[in-house]
Structures are given as structure tokens and as C-alpha cells.
Design a protein that fits this description.
Number of domains: 1
Shape: globular
Mean pLDDT: 79
Radius of gyration: 14 Å
Strand content: 25-35%
Largest sheet: 5 strands, mixed
Low-confidence stretches: 9-16, 76-86
Helix content: 10-25%
Length: 117
């Protein structure tokens, strides 16, 4: 997992764009994906990425993907780096969470990005 970083002033100025939750559970992420897929029927996968923000918790971004990036195609749950911008898809939600539920933390393991098909 990437090392924690300090939040900057810019993040605090647009924090209202986040869905703020105390604990983010895998079920909330899955429901968000399913709801968004109603308006994006061509999406075949979702990328869920987390970023640790020191003393603040986590930023979790959920993106719909029309295809799995080539760099991740062989492994449905792989990272190695962020999904690159050409493959990033449409951001459907950004969660600011104080902590991750055990199920979501287990899904990430030591990775920062997971692909859900």
C-alpha cells in the first residue's frame, strides 16, 4: 500500500464532493456500482482505488470501465500502480472514509486498486 500523505488545502476545499462515511463497507461500493451500471450498460468492470490520507482516513474512488485495462487483463484483482488515465473510465463515486470495513480492507489486501468484474 502507498504510504500515507498529508491532505492539502485543495482537498479540503472540495471535500464536499465526497460521500463522507465513518466506515466504508464493500456492500456500499457494490451497490454504487450496480446503480451506476443502469446508466452505463457498456461497463464491464469497475476499478476501486484507495488512497491513505494521514490523520483523515481514506479516499476511495470508484470508476466504471468499458473494458479491463490490458495491464490488468490477466488478473481480475491486481494492482501494480493506479489504472492509467487512458483506462481510467468514468468516476462514479468518491468516498472519504475514516476507516474501511473488514470486507473491503480484505478485498484490497496490500493492493491500492482492485478491479471488480
Amino acid at each position: 500500500m502507498a504510504p500515507p500523505r498529508e491532505p492539502d488545502d485543495h482537498e479540503h476545499s472540495w471535500a464536499a464532493d465526497f460521500q463522507q462515511v465513518e466506515t466504508l463497507w464493500l456492500a456500499e461500493v457494490v451497490i454504487t456500482i450496480l446503480q451506476a451500471r443502469q446508466s452505463a450498460p457498456h461497463a464491464s468492470a469497475a476499478a476501486v482505488s484507495r488512497e491513505v490520507v494521514r490523520d483523515e482516513g481514506f479516499l476511495v474512488r470508484v470508476r466504471l470501465l468499458e473494458s479491463v485495462p490490458r495491464s490488468l487483463a490477466g488478473d481480475p484483482v491486481k494492482t501494480g500502480g493506479a489504472v492509467n488515465s487512458g483506462d481510467a473510465g468514468k468516476v462514479i463515486a468518491v468516498f472519504a472514509a475514516r476507516r474501511l470495513g473488514h470486507d473491503l480492507a480484505d478485498a484490497f489486501g496490500d493492493r491500492d486498486t482492485v478491479i471488480l468484474k
